[in-house]
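Table S2 (text version). Query chain:
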Amino acid sequence: MRTNSTLFLLLALGMGVACAGEEPTAPRSPESRIVEAQVRMRMIGTAIDLYRMSYKKLPDSLPVLTETDDLSPDPFLHSVPKDPWGNSYEYRVVDRKTYEMRSFGPDGIAQTEDDILYPKRP
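Corresponding structure-token output:
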């Protein structure tokens, strides 16, 4: 039996996955795009955590999260979303337990001040 908090988490994740690929029709402010990138990265991060719990390792790439097999008949993500500027997120495994994910931000250029990192660093 699932608890209410577990059910809420599953519903929230499902809504996040369902909404992640939708493009709003109204123009978005620069600040809202940054928040949107952060939300999408948290959603992908949750899928990475679920993958790690199932396979006892980090995925080699983000597209792996969309694959199925006998251990995981449902994908962790239906598709890997792009950032709000239409770019792919950069994903890098640092070590067995640590990864970094990055949006290149509004300028689309790596290693600049507007990059958005996940998980956030102090």
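Notes on Table S2: The CA atoms of residues 9 and 15 lie 10 Å apart. The chain has one domain: 4-20+29-118.
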